[in-house]
Known about the structure:
single chain; 323 residues; ten-stranded mixed β-sheet
Amino acid sequence: MINFRTSVVIATYNGENFITEQLNSIFNQTLLPDEVIISDDLSTDNTVEIVKQFIKVNDLKSQWKIIRNQENLGWRRNFINLIQVASGDIIFTCDQDDIWKPKKIEMMVSQFKKNSRIGVLVSDYDELMESTGKSSKLRKLTTTDKNGTKKIDFIYKNILLKRPGCVFALAKEFVPEVISYFDILENPAHDVAMWGSGLINDRLYYLAEPTINYRRHENSSFQREVDNATKKESYYQVRINQLKRFNVRISCAMNYIKNKNEIHCEDKKMKLLGKMVKENDARITVLESGKISKLVVKALSYMTIFNFSADFKHILKMKFMRN
């Protein structure tokens, strides 16, 4: 039986309210990590002091360490740097404000032991809702069984990111592919890079079990970023801008494939991505026009009835609001 060394990497910033619960949930795993690296992004609260005290009290200096960045990198760069310095065979990316279920590491490591093809593994989560939180319901994933594990299929509904980075585990040997993908992304994020590179290389797998309590609150770094980006935009414009961002991500995926020497079913994957770009372009045109007649003209560009119906409802809603 293969014995994998495991690393947990945590990017922190002003996380004093929840960090202790997270650290305790890692400390109490049924299979303990061999390494925990916490990188603090110049917190202005007591996060660093809390972490240092936790390490000291629990005598974890040989396995756990905290690094304080010389400058504020932002959570995106902080995480990708952590992934590169982790030494474990399997790397777990961890937020500062969730609570891991006791068997998270044990369950996910068992999947890697079953199948050496796993480059990236994602799981489900249970939501832990704060009063200010916004729900992020799980999306269903289509998979194919491989050696007792579930490989996520390269199909339309699986293309864009469907799980947050806090439920990911990454094989160390697959890190170069993640970095390569991260480097071509616009406004890159570690979870998007892991998902995209894993899916395109047929090495993205799924554990259909919740492994964390995913805390939802308005002060999370990602939620603040989303709120800042949308607070000055109308509901209608938010949707249009989202479609434009989707196209940017899909174009990055296509560029990643073009830069690779060998991708299984490359033509088939490029064709699907191209169709998705075409559909999104059509949807943007329809929504910017705000006309049902334009929706009818572009109907054949839609890949699903769901998207067609959604845009029909968006247009009606905007007409109602204007009137």
